[in-house]
Amino acid sequence: MARVQEKGTEADVKKPSATTPGLHEEFDVTVIGAGPGGYICAVRAAQLGLKVLCVDKRKEAGGTCLNVGCIPSKALLHATERLVEARDLFPRMGIQCGEVKADLAAMMANKDRIVSETVKGVAFLFKKYQVTFRTGHASIKSPDCIVLDGEEVRTKRIVIATGSAPATLGGIEIDEKQIVTSTGALKLPHVPRHLIIVGAGVIGLELGSVWRRLGADVTIVEFADHIAPGFDRDMSKQLARSLQKLGINFRLNTKVTQVDKRADGLTVRVSPSDATGAEGEEALSCDTLLVATGRRPVTEGLGLEALDIKRDQRGHIIIDENFNTSCPGIYAIGDVVPGPMLAHKAEEEGYALANHLAGHPHHIRRDLIPGVIYTHPEVAMVGATEESLKAQNATYRVGTYPFMANGRARANCDTEGSVKILTCERTDTLLGIHIIGPSAGELIAEPALAMNFGASAEDIALSCHAHPTLSEAVKEAALAAFDRPLNL
Question: What is its EC number (predicted)?
């Protein structure tokens, strides 16, 4: 193991040997899982001079996110948004391009190309930083030994980064053809006539948007009384109106009780959720059903029971502030530990843990992990929702600003949505920022940075924002939170 000073720079760390080590050698760190958390942890640890092994069941690194999640879904979201833009918006902008139609096979091929190029980028990083990557099933024999497809591998520390898998509904068998998870919904060979989606969370809303733009009738069944659970209620109401205008039908306060396969499709039986007190069952017909009821941590087959590694009621591995599990020498990050199941959260944890293992300081504000829904309009948030502040009896102020009043949004013909900023009434400290509108996922970076440094709404308002930009809407909402906006 390379010697690492408690305080120093990468230049102070002895670099690993140029020879790729074999599995008969002892590793400083073994990372099980090569998703966003695992591969970032492996790369950062190698940058800091540690000898690293990364193991994954997939042949290619990148995990769910790069292979069958974030990247392919965003490729389809972007393509279908451009389809609608060319068909509906170009004529208004004075651009004539004739009939616009989708070529689903070509669209899927482009998505697959993007995925391939992205996962190759991870392989390049592993090679560049001399991370040993192996494909196979790994289980943990002891804190200093894993078993990889029957072969024992010695290691000084182990990181569990095995991610998550789609949660399923009891009694409903997933075949990834008629009844699909997000994995199957990303590779349907044809546009469904009627797609029913169970769950109005991020996955259901995004993939519902994709297939609706491509021509499918889309019905989203949600157990709760609103869509986008966990996001500020004002944002979810605005998003629901927008998606309804797109043509998505919502069945709220509704649960799925049974799914029957027919020769020509599926019969989905639904009834009012228990919270409504209503009764009655209804049969809905569709040709494809997407189960998007969330995700569950993947920990089976690792040998956690024998090591007495503690988990919570939802199956997440319990860790402390330094990512230690209840078994010394074994750490966990990403979707297998409590917190939002987000790729960027896993990346931050992977980076922080690698620094910790190499003796470097690390820090994460787990309460300031941004959340984004990549629909159109996008929804993004960081910090507290107004509902959570009310539940805490907090005293706060609200500043809002619509994109309709933003010059760049008008120039782009994309004015739907608004910015909402919540601040402490006494100190003006930022408590939460919520954006629905164009490029919300990009715009949320400034508020996230501001909140990480304890900034106030006035700090954002007094920072010069280029004109004309969408970011001026954030500045104006900040002005509204502590004084009054200038352009409203």
Answer: 1.8.1.4
CB contact at 8 A, 35 and 64: yes
pLDDT at 3: 37
CA gap 243, 227 in Å, rounded: 11
* Active-site pick, 190, 194, 360, 467: 467
Joined tokens for residue 273: 């959720």
Cα gap 140→108, rounded to integer Å: 38
- 17-22: list long-range contacts, CB under 8 Å, 24+ apart: 17/130, 18/130, 20/130, 20/132, 21/51, 21/132
What digits encode the pLDDT tens for the residues 283-324? 999 999 999 999 999 999 999 999 999 999 999 999 999 999
Q: Hey, is 140 helix, strand or coil?
A: strand
In angstroms, the Cα distances linking 235 to 118, 288, 377 are 32, 29, 10
Dihedral angle at the C-alpha atoms of 444, 290, 61, 372, nearest 10 degrees? 0
| Gyration radius from the chain CA atoms | 24
Encode 43-79: b = buried (16+ Cβ within 10 Å), e = exposed.
bbbbbbbbbbbbbbebebbbbbbbbbbbbbbebbbbb
State which amino acid sits at residue 240: A
**Helix, strand, or coil here: 360?**
coil
The number of C-alpha atoms within 13 Å of 191 and in the hemisphere containing its C-beta is: 20
Whether the pTM exceeds 0.85: the reply is yes
Q: Tell me what the mean pLDDT of segment 157-183 comes to.
A: 95
Task: Give pLDDT tens digits for 317-343.
Answer: 999 999 999 999 999 999 999 999 999
At residue 255, the 3 state secondary structure works out as: strand
DSSP string, 275-324: GG-----EEEEESEEEE-S-EEE--TTS-HHHHT--B-TTSPBP--TT-B
- At residue 5 the predicted structure's pLDDT band, cuts being 50, 70 and 90, is very low
137 is catalytic: no
- Give SS3 for 434: strand
Q: Domains in the chain and their CATH numbers?
A: 10-65+110-166+296-367 (3.50.50.60), 179-293 (3.50.50.60), 377-482 (3.30.390.30)
Query: CB neighbours of 320 closer than 8 A, spacing ≥ 6?
Result: none
